[in-house]
Specification:
With about 500 residues, the chain is an all-alpha fold. The chain is about 85% helix and about 0% strand.
Length: about 500
């Protein structure tokens, strides 16, 4: 798992860096308001994708990992998940194609996004099937193949989008959205073709040649229904933000404010999660295998290590972003507003990052339904708070809603993990490491502001140096961690791969 996570981490970091660089280029080309329109189109597209998938990816990952854990063929699970996926993806694509004009004009409030919505609807079944195939490859541990295909997909997407933007779209927001839609859709079709050709299903044994329809529907439908509700609420949340924010007296351009937060700040804030996303995908498959083999000791060990590493990483990343927030916003987007938002949201990073890993562990232990209930509850809470607070408090109301809903979701998921894995949590080490992070951030305010790359790297380096010193001094990390890492590297050397 350690080396699989390293491989996926390196790939995800490169891919996210390329994606974030492209986002910087796009924001400079079409402005904050154009980025806001694109984010709303992508939010609606995510709703269509969720409706079309309806839990198929999670089901494919879970059933494939289970079959491999029992040393059986994954072909029945794969065929069942593909048929199930198409059963929902085709009607969803037809519906979004038919109502794209009404969605663009009525929901988004700008008809310029209609062409992009039609392009996404046309390729929707391909995108959904792509999710099923990535679940299979992740469960099978074929990470190098998956990484190679993801690089191919990203390169194709960026090449097509850049060509359309530079030669056709210009600065028109509608054409820019269509360029992004065509680039990602064509690249997704290429990725699906590559994964389908490279798949390895094995030979079915006995009665295993028939898809396990009961298990496919039993696993996918609850997850899919909850995901659909959550995606619907998330889309509603994104759509109401500019509308309700425009009612606040201090708002000048609601769409631009939305674009700064969702198109500029959040991509930077969540960029380091490329590391945790890789670990999370592997934990789903590993916990599924361990639970089927009744490996409770390994489950508890992985849970403790995963939680500890994720929290420490979140404190490092959040503090580094906090320390360099203003120069980072200026360097990337030439925006004071982006830098101010980065500093405001950075203290929430440890909770946001840890929640990703906790959700993955719960899914691996078969707690998808509980996670779905928690997500639905907090999404409802978020929509209600946004509706009430945005017209009165503007972006301050958004911050309160965001923090409150994510804290509630994290608390519920962590409680569920403790019950499922029979774990007891001690908050002492987490509090100590967080206090060290707060103390390490204080000297950053004494530094002389600088411009350019130095203005970003110097405060980040000072923070990480101070944090590492405090952790060592107060024994937040110690020789046990060094020996653990050395053992992993030693095992790698002995295997020689």
């Amino acid at each position: 798992m350690f080396y699989g996570a390293l491989l996926l981490t390196g790939a995800n970091l490169v891919l996210r860096l390329a994606g974030m660089s492209f986002q910087v280029y796009l924001s400079a080309r079409i402005g904050a308001a154009g980025v806001g329109l694109l984010q709303l189109v992508l939010s609606v597209r995510m709703l269509a994708f969720t409706l079309g998938s309806s839990g198929a990816r999670t089901c494919a990952l879970y059933l494939s990992a289970e079959a491999l854990g029992r040393r059986r063929s994954v072909r029945p699970a794969l065929s069942g998940c593909v048929c199930y996926c198409l059963l929902f993806a085709l009607p969803a694509a037809a519906g979004f194609w038919a109502f794209s004009s009404r969605i663009a004009g009525g929901w988004i409030g700008d008809g310029a996004g209609e062409a992009a919505l039609r392009a996404f609807a046309l390729f929707l079944p391909i995108s959904c099937l792509n999710g099923v195939m990535t679940g299979l490859f992740t469960a099978a541990g074929r990470l190098r193949t998956l990484v190679a295909v993801e690089f191919l997909e990203q390169a194709c997407s960026m090449a097509v989008t850049f060509a359309l933007l530079s030669r056709w779209a210009g600065g028109d927001p509608g054409r820019a959205c269509l360029s992004v839609a065509l680039g990602s859709s064509i690249a997704g079709a290429l990725s699906l073709g590559a994964l389908w050709v490279l798949r390895q299903e094995g030979s079915p044994q006995g009665r295993e040649d028939r898809p396990p329809w009961r298990r496919v529907f039993g696993l996918s439908l609850p997850v899919g229904l909850a995901d659909d509700l959550r995606a619907g609420l998330s889309t509603v949340e994104n759509l109401i933000i500019p509308r309700r924010l425009a009612l606040f007296a201090g708002t000048v351009n609601a769409m631009a404010d939305y674009g700064v937060l969702h198109g500029m700040v959040f991509p930077v804030l969540m960029f380091p999660t490329a590391i945790l996303a890789s670990l999370a995908d592997l934990l789903v498959a590993e916990f599924s295998r361990c639970s089927r083999r009744r490996g409770q000791v390994r489950v508890r060990y992985l849970a403790r290590q995963g939680l500890r590493v994720s929290w420490l990483f979140g404190v490092c990343a959040g503090g580094a972003v906090f320390a360099a927030a203003r120069p980072l916003g200026q360097l990337l987007y030439h925006s004071e507003a982006a830098g101010a938002c980065l500093r405001l949201y950075a203290p929430l990073v440890p909770i946001l990052y840890l929640d990703i890993v906790v959700d993955a562990m719960c899914k691996g232990l078969g707690q998808q339904s509980a996670n779905a209930r928690y997500n639905l509850l907090t999404n409802l809470m978020d929509v209600a708070l946004l509706w009430l607070l945005l017209p009165r408090f503007g972006m301050g109301g958004y911050y309160f809603s965001f923090a409150a809903s994510h804290l509630v979701n994290f608390s519920l998921s962590l409680r569920r993990l403790g019950r499922s894995a029979n774990l007891r949590f001690s908050p002492g080490p987490a509090v100590k490491s967080a206090l060290c992070g707060a103390a390490a951030a204080l000297p950053v305010f004494l530094l002389r502001p600088q411009e350019g790359t130095a203005g970003v790297l110097v405060p980040m380096g000072c923070y990480l140096l101070a944090l590492g010193s405090l952790w060592l001094l107060l024994r937040v990390v110690g020789w046990k961690d060094v020996l653990w890492l050395r053992g992993l590297l030693g095992a790698r050397g002995k295997r020689g791969d």
